[in-house]
Amino acid sequence: MSLLLGVNIDHVATLRQARYALNPDAPILEPSVLDAAREAQKGGADSITIHVREDRRHMQDADARLMRKEVNLPLNLELANTVEMVSFACDLKPDFACLVPESREEITTEGGLDAVGHFDSLKDTIIALQASGIKVSLFIDPEEEQIEAAAKLGAEMIELHTGSFALAEGEPHQNELSRLRLSADLGASLGLQINAGHGIHRQNISSLFSVKNLKEINVGHTLVSRALFIGLRAAVAEMKALMADYQGDQE
Q1: Among the listed residues 155, 49, 192, the one whose alpha carbon sits nearest the alpha carbon of residue 108
Q2: Lowest CB count within 10 Å: 22, 84, 95, 219, which one?
Q3: Mean pLDDT of successive 10-residue stretches along the chain, which has 251 residues
Q4: Where does 21-159 have alpha helices with state H?
């Protein structure tokens, strides 16, 4: 099973906003998120991921609409489970919507969505998104109860949060891998597409190859960081080459 790569270009917008957040009408706004998406596509990206946050700290509404109109790749919109953001998603109609937890205090998304605790509100949200022709994913921790809740909610996909895996070393690292393997197997048995993301980079991606049933990984920060030295197209191509060794069928 070929492993797909979703490229998150949020940090390109982060860099742009560092200079132009107070001057959105400047003649030149750089770096261009559209150019970033096009470079990622040339490098072999299978989809583009963006996160339009409630506080619009990096990606803006106009960015999302530009991605939808101009980029010939599936668009994955990460969003909070709020009335405003769900309405925006239903209007934008990305190919995929990944519901994530969101906090104004965090720098980036930390931890998975509590699908168990927010079951009722998520149910309404998923129905609304799917009615607009959008496939739904839940960004959750690799925990049995969360995966089972995602399946009961009718989501097509889950994205397993790999942040703890990325930070762990030694025995804790192996423990996190075990959690991911069990979670991916469980999700697949329940009919869910299994994706993964957060903290994945060139040095740890091969460790994930022991996790079967993965369909797609979402990678952002490391690719933008690497792009500073070799360009985004080359950084994406480099990651895709590393992913080619994945053998994902259930053993």
Answers
A1: 49
A2: 22
A3: 93 96 90 98 98 95 97 97 97 98 63 94 98 98 98 98 95 95 98 97 96 98 98 98 85 45
A4: 33-43, 61-70, 83-92, 119-131, 144-153
- Residue among 161, 180, 166 at smallest CA distance from 218: 161
Instruction: Please count the other Cβ atoms lying within 10 Å of the Cβ belonging to residue 29.
Output: 15
3-state secondary structure of 113: coil
Return the active site residues.
51, 78, 198
154 three-state secondary structure = coil
Query: What is the three-class DSSP state of 182?
Result: helix
Residues 6+ apart with CB under 8 A from 9: 33, 36, 37, 40, 48, 49, 50, 220, 224
User: Considering the entire predicted model, what is its pTM?
Assistant: 0.94
Q: How many CA atoms lie within 13 A of 247 on its CB side?
A: 1
Q: List the domain boundaries for the chain.
A: 4-243
The whole-number pLDDT of residue 106 equals: 52
Residue bearing tokens 């091969």? 206
> Over the Cα atoms of the chain, what is R_g?
17
